[in-house]
Amino acid sequence: MAKIKKLKLKLEGFNNLTKALSFNLYDVCYAKTAADRKAYLAYIDEEYNAKRLEDILTEVVHIIGANILNVSRQDYDPQGASVTMLISEQPVDKEPENPEQPGPVPETIVAHLDKSHICVHTYPEAHPYSGIATFRADIDVSTCGKISPLRALNFLIHSFDSDVMSIDYRVRGFTRDVEGTKHYIDHKITSIQNYVSHEILGDYQAIDTNNYQDYLFHTKLMRTEIDLDHYLFQGGAKEKLPNKRDREKVRARLSEEIQEIFYGRNFLT
Fold first, then answer.
1. Which domains occur in the chain, in start order?
2. 136 pLDDT exceeds 90?
3. pLDDT attached to residue 233
4. Which of 116, 142, 148, 162 is catalytic?
5. Picking from 33-42, 60-69, 233-242, which range would have the lowest pLDDT averaged per residue?
6. Is 144 an active-site residue?
7. How confident is the model at residue 7 (pLDDT cuts 50, 70, 90)?
């Protein structure tokens, strides 16, 4: 790997590095009846329609101190939505350091982006037989320049209540210093986990698969506790499932679904 100087790099021209953060978020729940599943899909379509997603991303852009250049949004039939924003940075008061530590929480996060974009796509679905319903959101934040989108990761995770997260971070291209030396990354990173708060990590099992030579980092997280009152749509566990044995069956079904998504393979049941 190219040596990263501890001091601020003196560049020849613009910082040409492209830093891309992409992650999939999965929320799993149990919708017992056909009416529950229909209501779940209607709820997701209303809660995360294109206008609502635009409002969320607009707030994110304002929080990170950027300008919106263009917005494209679309609701889909029968469900799902997409929003894409082109954004540019506001003036930077000081050089960002991109330390390898969790970014600020939503109330305090500040970052700056240039020649960049942020987008989100949603994919709600409900299985007609198992009662399992899932909501997937794909989020991409790509920046060109000094700031790393990893500084926004903590805020984005705080904005969703997810059971499984699959996160990728990659630095592409190179930039030159005043001596003509190429630099393929301009900040230290050993793991995406180092940018996530300890409070969040405490609720998940996390594993890394990193390719340091290619500046490609991958982290997966899976929630470790299943509280049925949190996972049953429109009702508490004892209300929807008065029989304890039924509750344990649903708990096992939810656990299996979450693990299958996390490991990317189907289990034999």
1. 18-261 (3.60.90.10)
2. yes
3. 83
4. 116
5. 60-69
6. yes
7. very low
Predicted local distance difference test score (pLDDT) of residue 22: 93
Q: Is 121 a catalytic residue?
A: yes
Catalytic residue among 119, 144, 166, 187: 144
- Please state the three-class secondary structure of the chain as a single string: CCCCCCCCCCECCCCCCEEEEEEEEEEEEECCCHHHHHHHHHHHHHHCCHHHHHHHHHHHHHHCCEEEEEEEEEECCCCCEEEEEEEEECCCCCCCCCCCCCCCCCCCCCCCCCCEEEEEEEEEEECCCCCEEEEEEEEEEEEECCCCHHHHHHHHHHCCCCCEEEEEEEEECCEEECCCCEECCCCCCCCHHHHCCHHHHCCEEEEECCEHHHCEEEEEEEECCCCHHHHECCCCHHHHCCCHHHHHHHHHHHHHHHHHHHHCCCCCC
Give the tens place of pLDDT for each residue, 170-196.
999 888 888 888 889 888 899 999 999
Amino acid 157 reads I
Kindly name the residue from 112, 119, 121, 148 that is annotated as catalytic: 121
Predicted structure pTM score: 0.83
Q: Structure tokens of 77?
A: 């039939």
Query: How far is 152 from 104, CA to CA, in rounded Å?
Result: 8
Alpha carbon dihedral 242, 248, 252, 253, in 10-degree steps, equals -20
